[in-house]
Amino acid sequence: MAALGACGPGPRPVAPPETPRPQPQPFATQEKAFLVDPLTGYPQQVDAERQDLLQAAHRGLLTASDREGALEVATGLLQEDPGFAPAQVLIAQVELGEGRYAEAVQRLLPVSDSMPQFVASQLVLGRAAELAGDIPLSYSAYREIAPRSQRAFQKVGELHPRALEIVSNRLQESLRQNQLDGAEKHLSLLRAWAPSEVRTLEGTRALAVARGDAAAELAAVKELVQQRPGERALIERRAELELAVGDPGAGLQIIQGLAAENPNDPELAEKLAAAKFRWRVSLLPREVQEVAAKPELTKADLAVLLYWLVPNVRYGRPTTGRIATDVLDHRHQEEIVRVVNLGLMDVDQTLHRFSPGSPARRGTALRSLVLVLSRLGQGVTCLGGAAKGYPSTSAACEASASCGLLAPGDECHSGAAIGGGEAVELIRRTLKLLGGS
Question: Which residues contact residue 85 at a Cβ distance below 8 angstroms, ignoring those fewer than 6 apart?
Fold first, then answer.
């Protein structure tokens, strides 16, 4: 029996277990909220056949993770019509799901530029840019469609502070590098996204300062004062700008209020005196006010300010009869001739030219004012060697510092251009030394 058993059939060999076929991984589950029907929000009509092809491929992508099928359909549609944007969106959806964010962004940027309200495109662009780290681009894409997409609306609220911070930092960096056109582009985004927020107003002011645009700075400062009503430096700056390029009466009123609140503040007392003088300038002819508001003066402009703001110039008797042949038909001939014949400004002795349109320099203005003190004043003891004759620029700078025309620590910068506001203040200080107010 034992032998018989040995000769009988033995145990059957066990077949190795079948290796299970790999199941397709769910496609970009976490991104499905951004992978809507590629025709969503598309502004053009699409025939039924293309709609069916595209939407079937999209369903296969999301439900069966059929990337190859989606790419095949999208590529075929683009071969028939290279401008068919929904097919580009479907390919970008595959790229987003596979983590190829930069490729999706580059693919959809032209679509975004031409169709900013295309919801399906902007959702993918916004998400791909966000994951690639370009928060401003992402925010901009979401913002375009926020009224038409709840998901985009939520992302706008989430990204708003970061987008503003990044663009504001870019603006400041452009200003540091004196790239004003680049700064303007960043500022235009801030204005579109948050026109009344402090970051935008501060950026507007900073760019205005960089460009020397006092009127634009004043507009920004007015809004900043409303945002930060108790900030004294900002209030004083508004007053200065109102006096220079805005409403001098409003500027004077602001300084008067501050001086009344701080009666023992000598700095405010000085600013009040300057404000009163600047307000009086606002009562002069319009043409004189416009000169006083210029960011850079010509020699003719400087002569106009000397003539109208220094009474002894306007009413004084010239002692010489120098001729300037290039001012005979100039609209400010009277002012120029009076200043020249009082010996307060130069005429080329060889060509007999005043050059009224050439830039006025700081040294030129200071020398003229030192001459006003030496020739029209009495007992001005601070002039030193500049009290006689026609002082050199360096001597005029030294006398200006000694007499207080220049603020303590202020360099002469004789070759720098001079603006109307600065010239008016220098003239005020000169008149104070002459016994005026």
Answer: 42, 111, 114, 115, 118, 121
pLDDT in tens, 35-52: 999 999 999 999 999 999
Q: How many CB atoms lie within 10 A of CB 119?
A: 22
Structure tokens at 239: 């007053």
Confidence tier at 126 by pLDDT (50, 70, 90): very high
Helices (H), 115-149: 119-132, 135-145
Amino acid at 12: R
Instruction: Report if residue 178 sits inside a domain.
Output: no
361 - beta bridge partners? Answer: 417
Answer with the one of 261, 281, 301 that is the final residue of a domain: 281
State percent of the chain over pLDDT 90.
Answer: 76
CA dist., res. 403 & res. 426, Å (int): 11
CATH of the domain at 261: 1.25.40
Same domain, 45 and 109: yes
Any alpha helices (H) in 194-329, and if so which ranges? 198-211, 214-227, 232-245, 248-261, 266-281, 286-292, 299-309, 311-315
The rounded radius of gyration (Å) of the Cα atoms in the chain is 38
Q: Nearest to residue 35, comparing CAs of 195, 134, 149?
A: 149
Confidence of residue 14 (pLDDT cuts 50, 70, 90): low
Establish if 385 belongs to a structural domain: yes
In a domain, 408, yes or no: yes
How far apart are the C-alpha atoms of 98 and 70, rounded to whole Å? 13
pLDDT classification of 4: cutoffs 50, 70, 90: very low
The tokens of 412 are what?
């002469």
Mean pLDDT of 19-40: 76
Domain end marker among 100, 133, 148: 148
Range of the domain at 354: 286-433
For 157-214, what is each residue's pLDDT tens digit?
999 999 999 999 999 999 999 999 999 999 999 999 999 999 999 999 999 999 989 9
Count how many domains the chain has.
3
Q: Report whether pLDDT(130) > 70.
A: yes
Q: How far apart are CA 251 and CA 239, in angstroms?
A: 4
Quick one: 249 and 371 in the same domain? Answer: no
- Please indicate, yes or no, whether residues 241 and 304 belong to a single structural domain of this protein: no
Asked if 275 and 295 sit in the same domain, the reply is: no
Here the tokens at position 366 are 């200071």
Tokens 């025939």 -> residue: 47
Domain-embedded: residue 249:
yes
